[in-house]
Design goal:
CATH architecture of the largest domain: Sandwich
Radius of gyration: 31 Å
Structural class: alpha+beta
CATH topology of the largest domain: Immunoglobulin-like
Strand content: 25-35%
Largest sheet: 5 strands, antiparallel
Order of helices and strands: HEHEEEEEEEEH
Number of strands: 9
Helix content: 25-40%
Number of helices: 3
CATH class of the largest domain: Mainly Beta
Shape: rod-shaped
Length: 174
């Protein structure tokens, strides 16, 4: 009988002890997993923090033939990251939000015809983004939306041909 009590006590103590050790191990593993996730998130955020695409101002390129110049816009796009980025989509919308059919690339000829429109444009340091309306009409107030590889959020640039005149009017009245 005394041996039976000792065996029962030992089984109860060691059974509870092994359960406690397993629970502690599970808690330690969860804490380690949380710290590992936190560290990997910080490293990822630090790597992504320098991935910045900066667009320049939209403007007409100054082609010799005015009619050709009015249906073409150009802007510089700068990559501030040491890693190569790419532009995979460029869309243009008029002042009413209607999508304009455009062709885009990083190169055009002297008449404003877009050369090699590949629908994918790599950016190492900087690139000229050239856009031409397919219908040959003049660009009025236009919002250009650029999708790039560093973010799922699109960059939007607004071209307003009368913005310079509005600034001049404000300067005179003030």
């Amino acid at each position: 009988m005394p041996n039976e009590i000792v065996v029962k006590c030992a089984t109860t103590v060691f059974g509870d002890l092994s359960t406690a050790i397993a629970a502690c191990t599970a808690v330690v593993a969860a804490v380690c997993a949380y710290f590992s996730y936190s560290l990997s998130k910080r490293i990822y955020d630090e790597i992504k923090s320098d991935e910045v695409i900066v667009p320049g101002t939209l403007h007409h390129p100054g082609l010799r033939v005015r009619k050709h110049d009015e249906c073409v816009l150009r802007c510089s796009v700068f990559n501030k990251s040491p890693r190569k980025a790419y532009i995979n989509s460029v869309e243009a919308f008029d002042s009413k939000g209607v999508k304009l059919e455009i062709t885009w690339s990083d190169n055009m000829d002297e008449l404003g015809t877009i050369l090699n429109p590949t629908e994918l444009l790599g950016i190492v340091d900087a690139v000229n983004l050239c856009m031409r309306r397919n219908d040959g009409e003049e660009f009025g107030k236009t919002t250009v939306s650029i999708q790039h590889s560093f973010s799922s959020k699109k960059i939007e640039i607004v071209y307003d041909p009368y913005a310079e005149w509005e600034c001049m009017d404000e300067g005179k009245s003030g």
